[in-house]
Design brief:
223 residues; mainly alpha; 8 helices; 67% helix
């Protein structure tokens, strides 16, 4: 007698529809935010939705992670905690990333650092790790590529960070130390991604990276 608990596979056309809906939502979040920040008379209104956009994007990515096992959740917790603690050290000592302070755009702060910054590190690590995993590369090359993708994202974000009250650099100058430390720390996080025991294939990840990269690139180009 066959078990009645057999899991019925989701039809491929259903999966495709879900992916298209998720991609549409990601585009909607970022296009609306871009137009509001760049062209409205009240960009501060749109800045208030930054935490919500980050959380919703993370949830959409989570929905397309196959096999969310204990190793996956452990990775999420570890990266989020490490990212947050690295920022605490950076803000209070200047020995990591440089001398900077956080504004109010990213929401509630504890120890002068937004709690959501850990989620931001997780999303970026996860998305860039997935992109690097698409290529048939050895492990070290994937780690380095993932870290470079993370630094590339930061290069587009930094020019507009102070404009929209994400964070502010001492004397308004972005130090080379920031990009150096970003690369070092990103390599460490990519090591965790590569070694974590969960499936590294999220169909939404490429669009999330591209949309966020272009979002900050075009905001910067309008300054």
């Amino acid at each position: 007698m066959e078990s009645s608990n057999r899991v019925t596979p989701v039809p491929s056309n259903t999966n495709t529809r879900r992916l298209r809906v998720a991609q549409g939502l990601v585009l909607l979040f970022h296009i609306t935010g871009f137009l509001g920040l760049a062209f409205s008379d009240n960009p501060e209104f749109y800045q208030e939705f930054t935490p919500l956009t980050l959380i919703l994007t993370a949830l959409l990515l989570l929905a397309f992670q196959p096999g969310r096992n204990a190793a996956f959740w452990s990775f999420c917790f570890t990266v989020s905690l490490m990212g947050y603690m690295a920022e605490v050290v950076g803000v209070h000592t200047g020995k990591f990333f440089g001398h900077y302070t956080y504004g109010d755009t990213l929401g509630l702060k504890v120890l002068s650092v937004p709690l959501l910054i850990g989620l931001n590190w997780l999303v970026l690590t996860y998305v860039c790790g997935n992109l690097a995993h698409y290529l048939p590369l050895p492990q070290l090359a994937r780690i380095l590529l993932g870290a470079l993708l993370m630094v590339g994202f930061d290069l587009c974000l930094e020019p507009v960070a102070s404009t929209y009250d994400f964070w502010h650099w001492s004397a308004g100058v972005i130090p080379f130390q920031n990009f150096r430390d970003w690369f070092i720390f990103s390599c460490l996080l990519q090591v965790l991604f590569v070694r974590a025991g969960f499936k590294k294939h999220n169909k939404l990840a490429p669009l999330v990276y591209l949309v966020q990269l272009l979002f900050f690139f075009f905001l910067g180009s309008l300054q």
